[in-house]
Structure formats: structure tokens, C-alpha cells
């Protein structure tokens, strides 16, 4: 009887220590998301500041002028050179995670991405997987955008949850933003 009581007491003590350990881990500051839009009924409104064509033209530095363009709709995203000759990367199933009114992440499931030879196609290995774009300093007519990139990082994620976890500023994926206008 005495040994059973000791075992039960030890089991409760062990559970208390384990429970305290989990509680301690949960006290870390978590990012509070202002809005999250994931297709369907809760997709971005057509008048949301993110919606539209965003571009910048870089001057000729010996290799010709270069235009960078991003098109964001309520359900799709694409990056292209703005001359109609094709898309670099694109995605659908748009999901926007707003950290504030001026900053957040855009997640898309690739419909077009990069091949090993640096070309882009609808059959590239990452097509069907998730990718992320970070934006900041959003106004009605300006935005700064960066696609997820890290030399030793991933180029896509299997699930939206994995993309949200992996592709973050804190994880070092968004170091260079392009300044664009509508």
C-alpha cells in the first residue's frame, strides 16, 4: 500500500514537472496576426490595397533597362518582366497573412516556378507546392515586396502550414525588397 501511494505520488510529481515545462515553453511571445485571408468567402476584397499591378523599372546599367512586375488578384499572384513575354513565377490559392495594415505575407501554391536550368515552366519541380512573398510599407500606391530566398533555405513547402512556419523574416528569407508603385 505504501509503495503504491509512493508510485502515484511520483507519477503526479512527474506530470506536474512535465506540465510546468510545457507551460514555460508556451509563454514565448507569439506573433499576433491581424487578418488572414484564404480563398473562398474570406478572400481579399477587390478594393484591398494589395490588389493590382505593382512595378518598377530599373535603369540601363549596361545590360538594358529591366522592368519587374507583380500582379495580385483576390486569388492569384504572378511575377513577370512587364512586357507580356511571360511569367517568371506564379501561383494560385492565394493566402494573405496580414501582420498589420502595412505588412504581411502572401502565400501561393505554385502554378509556375523555376527549373534547374533557371527557366520557368508549369512543370517545374516546385509546381503544386507553397511559396511565400513578404510585403511591407504598403500604401494605396506603393509597396515593398520580396520573394522567399535564402542560400541554404527551401524553395517551396509541401503545405501552407509548413510555408507559414518556414518562410519568415526571422528565418532570414526576405533580405532584399523591391520598391514598387501601382
Topology:
Layout: H1 2-26, E1 35-38, E2 52-58, E3 66-72, E4 77-80, E5 87-98, E6 104-114, E7 120-121, E8 130-136, E9 142-147, H2 160-166, E10 178-181
Antiparallel strand pairs: 1-5, 2-3, 3-4, 4-5, 5-6, 6-7, 6-8, 8-9, 9-10
What does this structure look like?
The protein has 182 residues and is of the alpha+beta class. Helix content is 18%, strand content 35%. The protein has helices at 2-26, 160-166; strands at 35-38, 52-58, 66-72, 77-80, 87-98, 104-114, 120-121, 130-136, 142-147, 178-181. Strands 1, 2, 3, 4, 5, 6, 7, 8, 9 and 10 form a ten-stranded antiparallel sheet that branches. 24% of the residues are buried.
What structural class should be given to the helix and strand makeup?
alpha+beta
Strand content: 35-45%
Instruction: Identify the quaternary structure here.
Output: single chain
Whole-number average pLDDT?
A: 80
Q: What is the end-to-end distance?
A: 78 Å
Low-pLDDT residue intervals, each spanning 5 or more residues:
1-31
* Main pleated-sheet profile: 10 strands, antiparallel
Count of DSSP helices?
2
Q: Judging from the principal axes of the Cα atoms, what is the shape?
A: globular
Please give the number of β-strands.
10
Order of helices and strands: HEEEEEEEEEHE
Residues in helices, as a percent range? 10-25%
Q: Calculate Rg over CA atoms.
A: 22 Å
Amino acid at each position: 500500500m505504501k509503495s503504491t501511494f509512493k508510485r502515484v505520488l511520483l507519477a503526479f510529481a512527474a506530470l506536474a514537472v512535465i506540465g510546468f515545462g510545457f507551460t514555460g515553453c508556451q509563454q514565448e511571445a507569439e506573433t499576433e496576426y491581424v487578418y488572414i485571408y484564404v480563398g473562398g468567402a474570406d478572400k481579399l476584397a477587390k478594393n484591398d490595397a494589395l490588389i493590382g499591378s505593382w512595378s518598377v523599372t530599373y535603369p540601363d546599367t549596361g545590360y538594358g533597362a529591366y522592368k519587374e512586375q507583380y500582379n495580385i488578384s483576390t486569388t492569384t499572384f504572378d511575377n513577370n518582366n512587364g512586357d507580356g513575354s511571360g511569367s517568371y513565377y506564379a501561383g494560385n490559392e492565394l493566402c494573405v497573412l496580414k501582420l498589420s495594415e502595412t505588412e504581411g505575407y502572401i502565400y501561393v501554391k505554385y502554378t509556375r516556378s523555376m527549373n534547374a536550368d533557371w527557366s520557368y515552366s508549369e512543370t517545374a519541380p516546385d509546381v503544386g507546392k507553397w511559396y511565400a512573398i513578404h510585403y511591407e510599407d504598403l500604401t494605396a500606391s506603393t509597396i515593398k515586396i520580396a520573394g522567399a530566398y535564402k542560400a541554404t533555405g527551401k524553395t517551396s513547402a509541401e503545405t501552407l502550414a509548413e510555408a507559414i512556419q518556414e518562410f519568415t523574416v526571422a528565418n532570414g528569407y526576405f533580405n532584399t525588397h523591391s520598391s514598387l508603385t501601382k
